[in-house]
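Let us practice reading a record.
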Amino acid sequence: MTDTQTTSAGAQINHAAPASPPDTQHAKRWWILAIIGLAQLMIVLDVTIVNIALPDAQKALGFSNGDRQWIVTAYSLAFGSLLLLFGRVSDVIGRRAMFLIGLVGFAAASALGGAAPNFEVLVIARALQGVAGAMLAPAALSLLSTTFTEAKERATAFAVFGGIAGSGAAIGMLLGGVLTEYMNWRWTLFVNVAISVVAIIGAAALIPRHPREVGRPSLDIPGTVLVSGGLFGIVYGFANAESHAWSTPSTWGFLAGGVALLAIFTWWQTRTKHPLLPLRVILERNRGGSYLAMFLTGIGMFGVFLFLNYYLQEILRYSPVMTGVAFLPMVAALMITATISTTQLYPRIGAKILVFAGMLLGGGGMVWLTGISLSSTYAANILGPLLVVGVGMGMIFAPAMNAATSGVEARDAGVASATVNTAQQIGGSIGTALLNSLATSALTSYLVGKNATSQLVQANAAIHSYTVAFWWAAAIFGAGAIVCGLILKAGKPDPADPEAAPVIHA
């Protein structure tokens, strides 16, 4: 929308809102994108930035290997289980307010974690980071979807946002390695304070206040308890599977309980007057298919980040910094492809073909990675697959995020955005546990009847376990291509209805 169009249409939209606030925001829209992108980067890089610092943190605070996983799990548990709740709360209190609260909370939690004197305080800080992240993520995406309503500009904005969402984990590994190697593990947490302060100042100055909308939704308390409990059970169950057998009650019990609670939640959403997640949001084919694409991609991507990270550091003996650098070509490929896919291709062909092709490329890159060996080199055996996976992810993330938030009513923008993040987060949690469990079983089976004390045998067993994980990740991408290809609608996306474009999104 240009200023001329806004002026000429003023007679038709004056009943909805004064002309000046949209004009003000329109002029600042790219600065607003920068602030939203900065917040999103902080959220996604924090999934991996602490991972590389864990050995140093463990030495400093003296916690056990068994306790180490909780530094990662505490963040995932809080983040994954509270996303839908805060997505709806942002619809109730306003996205600007929720965005600022989340930024302040993330800064405070990060400062607490960086200064943590012991293991317990560090775990609490990571959980609080997850809570703040669950506030930030849906507010950021819904602000993006309501700030950019003109088709071409929206495509560019989502290309940037999708590129950040897809590459943040790799950037986190690089930044975590640099901070740990050249400064101190605590700076993997303190760095968020600096990022948050910049984002808080920018958000307060750039994102305008708006009067309250008429008809903002009420909060569905029973639904909130059901879905938060269900997501907690699923995330905890899969996280627990990393260190416990699938047959233990603490694994299958939480998984079964989580599924049961989500089933009850779905039933409740059809009965309550003010549903937390209105089924109209997820039952529209393009949105539902996009959520599924984000979920499956979250599972499959951990085949790259988790096991290729192990391979580079443990087999090829890369330093943490060099491991992070090794992923940069994938990040570049993802960002470039996301931009082209969303600005040039998505408006012409829609999400169906892009997501289908992206899934196939992701699976193809995983199959290529199964050829790694003790004598592999980065240029010959790693770079090519990373570029293929990066192109594939770029074709999925930005178009899927765009389709997942297009055409949604203003009152549902927050919860629709939260569902995108929830799908990716839960997928990532499942991918970590599932692929890690499969890889561990493969390693154990490989060592049967062999000299397990031999370093050569151990190295080959580790590579075998990684390739098994890559094959499974390839299968997940292949299944995703088929299922998402069947669900997503073919053809150009429906043009935005100017009368439906939300004008209130504080």
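A brief commentary: DSSP finds 20 helices and no strands in the chain.
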